Amino acid sequence: MYRREQPVPTQACPAALYNNLCVLSLPAPRLTQFALVHGLNVQLLSATSDGLPVSQRQLHAKEGAGLSFPLITQAYWCVLPFRVLLVLTSQRGIQMYESDGSVMVYWHALDSGDAPPAQALFARGIAASGHYIFVGTWSGRVLVFDVPAKGPNIVLSEELDEHRVPITDIAAEPAQGQDCVADVVTADDSGLLCVWKSGPEFKLLTRISGFGSPCPSVRLWQGTVAAGYGDGQIRVFEASSGALHVQINAHARGVSALDLAPEAGKLLSGAEDSFVHIWKLSRNPDSGCIEVEHCHAECVTDTQVCGARFCDPRGSSFAVTGYDLPEILRYSCV
Amino acid sequence: MSVRSLPLLFLNLGGEMLYILDQRLRAQNIPADKARKDEWTEVDRKRVMNDIIATMFNKKFLEELFKPQELYSKKALRTIYDRLAHASIMRLNQASMDKLYDLMTMAFKYQVLLCPRPKDVLLVTFNHLDAIKDFIRDSPTIMNQVDETFRQVIEVYGCLSAGEFHLIRQTLLIFFQDMHIRVSIFLKDKVQNSNGRFVLPISGPVPWGTEVPGLIRLFNNKGEEVKKVEFKHGGHYVRAQSEGSFDLYGDRVLKLGTNMYSISRPVETHVSGASKNSALNTKERTAPNPLAKEELNFLARLMGGMEINKTSGPEPGFRLNLFTTDEEEEHAALTRPEELSYQVINIQAAQDQQRNEELTRIMGEFEVHDQPQQSTSKGDDLLAMMDEL
Q1: What is the pTM of this model?
Q2: How many domains, chain B?
Q3: Quick one: fold of A17-259?
Q4: pLDDT tens digits, B196-248
């Protein structure tokens, strides 16, 4: 169903972090941009549809007091109605750039105030919904930034205070609109999921408890929450009620990345067991319950997958990164 | 990122170092009655192992180590092992020390990567500690020190969550990034590919607490299971039989971290030449390193806690060679690729002054000795430099 295409060589291998790949498709010219975190820096590459590298750039974490070389935890393109911002989270704070990484437009330093002594400090987990950008932190607090249509006047407008351990991932509903049941889901190291609805203030809709493993990656689609766990499980829940509808023994090691192709309801999962799976989400017309079927399995030999993304909203192509792998692997539908 | 990874890194790398040294010392062993004055005997070997282990588990040293702190660079850590390896009458040339460090780091990288669960890095640590206890079973004082450390590891790590172990694992893997040295014993056993990457099996038991992949379960709104569907996941996994013991004594089950060397399997490395990533590696190693001062402070505190028995009197230092012959060792020293050099804040750097501007700038902050010193006092000079900070 999918065949491997020409990989895109990278200058450095990605770090073994969660969700370590972001993809941005540029319509004209037909280029795909990739972002991956090496640890001390972020690699931004753009390539043609044939996988030929066109340009690349490296970004570093902004230094602050203390550590001179802070590690970056995640890079993500936030697609907002009027602009696209590239957001980097690190051990020091949050950096927001224009989408090509050329100019930093905003910097937010992490508050280490009430941290216990053996606590690692970092920001991690990025998503965009409407004109908001959400970023998670080590304390479990989720920062909500209000982003204007242009300019650097980004403001921290709210802090969501439901989680108690470090945030792992945040996801937003791709189809925006008034009839959306839920807008954002946040996940943390204990596996707890919180589903939120936007409004004048963000409201907590549902809490879904963990199962003893972290939830490194989560996605939200049409009122469905799909979550991958550190013990290789994938679970799918009804967003409004938190009811578990599907449980999959999906991987033999921890899931490190999930992605969703919203136009087709396809789910992509990558894990440290070197496998990538594609699933199809649907709603049973009679019961209204969510169902999942397995579509495709891909073994990335001798590679612990750390990032996986669809390259288009129909899910006809996807890209994968792995620890110790100096290239971005690409696959497309035959 | 995790501020709890350093003790695990240190103890496991130390364990691997002891496996390698023990094997090499046995290989060069000469029966006491036949030995000349400059050859190794069984007594010498035991003494070296005891001295190194006693230094590794020194109370003050471990106190510093267990304080919550970020992981330091490979360069900083290498300095500690250099000092540790010279804690006794044994001496290692630069080339042998490089090879020792290569082997240690690649072995632990392999173990961390292949741990079924992130928490299993504790079982790897316990395997190393169990073996160390066996090395010094005849010395009750040192045995006490090791037992104390064992208890401290259990106390500090026993109650960490799965999420915290994931972070420790990620932090360790960042430390080992960009290291692809090929190790003969790994290549022979087919656990490493010729490109330096490790083989990840897709068969065998799943980690304890993980389900065998291949099943989709569907539920209704009442939480009742309505359908079970199997799918082909591509691997050949089976259930895990048992969980290893996290107590002071017990069957660890996991084999990672046990001694893979023996007399018949000599320690060899191929030092991988210019790789695709060598450009980036070199940039990172010779880039201006403001961290150097912080690292030196850490090293000073840590090594201040190391009680090194200075050899005095008539005893000469015995040189251990990690290669088969002296010629091989010399050849290795001459042909080691630049990007894999561990030298930075050391005497050696003085010789590179003309070639490397950045190192010159850093060295300019210290008083540099003109003549390269003998390896026996390398560690002393570093400490002396640190005293002047």
Answers
A1: 0.87
A2: 1
A3: Methylamine Dehydrogenase; Chain H (2.130.10)
A4: 899 999 999 999 999 999 999 999 988 899 999 999 999 999 999 999 999 88
Number of Cα atoms under 13 Å in the Cβ half of residue B98: 23
Q: Is the pLDDT of residue A262 over 80?
A: yes
**In a mutagenesis test of the B interface, which of A211, A277, A302 is the best target, namely the one with the most B β-carbons within 10 Å?**
A302
Q: Which residues contact A88 (CB under 8 A, 6 or more apart)?
A: A42, A59, A61, A72, A74, A75, A94, A95, A96, A97
Model pLDDT, residue B40: 64
User: Would the CB atoms of A246 and B218 count as touching at under 8 Å?
Assistant: yes
B72 to A206, B77, B103, B344: CA distances (angstroms): 41, 7, 19, 14
DSSP B272: -
Report the C-alpha gap between A191 and A210 in whole angstroms. 4
B382 forms beta bridges with: none
CB contact under 8 A, B277 and A13: yes
* Secondary-structure breakdown of chain A: helix, strand, coil percentages, each rounded to the nearest 5: 0, 55, 45
- Using a CB-CB distance cutoff of 8 angstroms, which residues of chain B are in contact with residue A118? 3-4, 68
Instruction: Please answer whether residues B184 and B268 qualify as being in contact, where contact means their C-beta atoms are separated by less than 8 angstroms.
Output: yes
B75 at A interface, C-beta within 8 A: no
Cβ distance A203 to A197 under 8 Å? yes
- pLDDT tens digit sequence for B46-55: 888 999 999 9
Q: State the residue range of the domain holding B100.
A: 5-200+245-264+316-366
Q: Do A247 and B235 touch (CB under 8 A)?
A: no
Q: A74 versus B186: which is more confidently predicted?
A: A74
Chain-chain contact of A16 with B3 (C-beta, under 8 angstroms)? no
Query: Distance (Å, rounded) from C-alpha B57 to C-alpha A39?
Result: 31
**For position B178, what pLDDT does the model report?**
84
In this structure, the strands spanning A123-129 and A22-26 are: unpaired
Residue A205 CA to residue A194 CA, distance in Å, equals 8
Closest alpha carbon to B270 in B172, B177, B201, B192: B192
